[in-house]
Amino acid sequence: MTTPIWEYQPEECDLDNNTRNFGSKIKEMYELEYKWSMLQAKPFIGHPKRQNNILRKLESNLQQITEIIQSQLCVTLERWLDSHAILFPRKWADRCISDNANFALVEGDSLEREFDSMACLFLQYAKHLHTKYNKNDIKKEDRRNEVFLIMLDIALKSEYPFFMKFIRQECKNKKCFIEKANWNELFDGKMEEFCYCLEGELYKEDVLREFYEYQVFPEWKRYWLVMGIKETRIAVKDIYMGLKKESNSLGNLIALVNLGLNVAHQTGKMIEYLEEDTDSDNLRAILKDMSEGIFIDRVNKELQIIGVQI
Fold it and tell me: Average of pLDDT values for 231-257?
């Protein structure tokens, strides 16, 4: 049975466990938009009422699928903006923590993984340490511990509130003076031991947040400002705010969604945010195919069959 022109026929690759994936919804929007535009722009052989009926059904389906994509783009762009909040270090730190699915308040090994991730991010952007500690002849564990001990020194000197609360408690437990304590004495000079001791504290996430906010964020911001993140973020936020508003026409809605998909495709690793949010792994290739119009020849034949002169 032939699929009506106003409907999208999913391919086998569009299904994940018999459920349509997000990539197929993008393909549907592009195809329906093309059909809708061509049906209005090209001569039509047939009764005007039939043409209007097809247009009305195309419009309805196109509106529905475009709104689904609009909703998802709002979620993803908001998460990206939070992760690139150059003026709000606390918000940025919170997003770093929430984005790590391995973080669990009751598992010490999860806490260690989170601190390890934080230290690696710090090392990635702290250029004064990057060259020294990213050498192949330094074992990963040794590199991690050395960098983390540097971070502990900075935290102690800067007196982060929750960090200092923890250190004072540890010094009390181990009967040493905080002025004379050293990391080998307190934690055997290892991140693993630090996380083991912190794991039982209710404020452990606050300690982690302090490291992200006060140490990692400044290095991250310094790097990305040089890369033009300020201008990029302004552009992304403008698109996000446009998508959040109710559009007064289908044409405007499609234009905004296309901008959102384009910025996700072209802006660094933003496409990875969209793929993660939609459990997809092929959106970059799909957007490339759609922008190149690989479906046009096939869809033109379908349009000609119903009377569109192309």
Answer: 91
